[in-house]
Write a structure and sequence with these properties.
- The chain has 104 residues and is α+β, with helices and mostly antiparallel strands.
- The protein has one domain.
- The protein contains two helices and six strands, in the order E-E-E-E-H-H-E-E.
- It has a six-stranded mixed beta sheet with strand order 2-3-4-5-1-6.
- The protein is globular, with a radius of gyration of 15 Å.
- 8% of the residues are buried.
Length: 104
């Protein structure tokens, strides 16, 4: 499950998260946070710069048209491996959209 959020200003870092995870990772480029990952194995939670991921890895530029955005989009993704999936509750979101985050 993955959501995209438009965040014109990055207002969080790893200190804003509380996790019981033993294994965390943080990736930055040129001093700018690009991703945070919590846990390894069957269940993983990721917060990442979706635009950097598209530019550097996936080339899924069609997302830009879907979102109407070409910058400042962060992905929040929960990965559950196949063997663990039956023990999880799934909710289908009928009309996924890019959510606008406004802290004000």
């Amino acid at each position: 499950m993955c959501f995209g959020y438009h965040l014109p200003e990055l207002d969080f870092d790893e200190s804003h998260f509380i996790s019981r995870s033993v294994k965390d990772s943080k990736y930055s480029e040129n001093g700018r946070l690009q991703s945070l990952t919590f846990r390894k194995g069957d269940v993983v939670m990721r917060f990442y710069d979706k635009i950097a991921e598209i530019d550097q890895q996936s080339s899924n530029v069609w997302f830009h048209d879907l979102w109407g955005q070409k910058k400042d989009v962060w992905g929040i993704e929960r990965q559950v491996r196949k063997d663990t999936l039956p023990s999880c509750v799934l909710i289908r979101i009928p009309n996924p959209v890019l959510y606008e985050y406004n802290a004000a």
